[in-house]
Design brief:
Blueprint (H helix, E strand, L loop, with lengths): L1 H31 L10 E6 L9 E2 L4 E6 L2 E6 L13 E4 L2 E4 L5 E2 L5 E3 L8 E6 L4 E10 L11
Antiparallel strand pairs: 1-10, 2-3, 3-4, 4-9, 5-6, 6-7, 7-8, 9-10
């Protein structure tokens, strides 16, 4: 009889552990399989170019950063290419570059991976600047990393 009770308690304990552990395992699997943050889409307001200092990244509400360098203005994702963590929430973005605190990856301001585990560079997005200097990031349109919008004419 005591053996039956022990078996019953083991079965209940195992089932309870499964109920508690399943959501945790699902979350871990989603993060490690690239199920992190989605990339931005659509037209995003990037502010005015007059407020964008050289090499001082501006993080948008969406997972996008807008940067101005000597060549002009460009935009790229803040989603780490390793496990899709959003570095604007789980990391840091500064003139020194982008750092992902999820697993330690780092990127320079051009989006190149400088420290792993990430090996793939960050995606760059098309940028439009109107006559008044208003920046619009076309987040669904991936462009080459060297594309800049010249601000001399704005």
């Amino acid at each position: 009889m005591q053996s039956d009770r022990r078996n019953f308690i083991r079965i209940i304990a195992s089932a309870g552990a499964g109920l508690v552990g399943a959501p945790l395992l699902t979350a871990c699997a989603a993060q490690s399989s690239g199920g992190g943050q989605p990339e931005a889409q659509g037209a995003l307001d990037g502010g005015n170019v007059s407020d964008l200092a050289l090499s001082d990244p501006r993080t948008l509400a969406e997972p996008v950063v807008v940067i101005r360098d000597d060549g002009g203005v460009y935009a790229m994702t803040t989603i780490c290419t390793h496990a899709q963590c959003d570095m604007s929430h789980s990391g840091s973005i500064s003139a020194a570059g982008l750092h992902c605190s999820c697993h330690g990856s780092s990127f320079d301001l051009q989006g190149n991976a400088t420290q792993g585990p990430a090996r793939t560079p960050l995606a760059h997005y098309a940028v439009d600047i109107d006559a008044g200097g208003e920046i619009t990031v076309q987040a669904g349109e991936v462009v080459p990393a060297d594309r800049r919008v010249d601000v001399a004419s704005v």
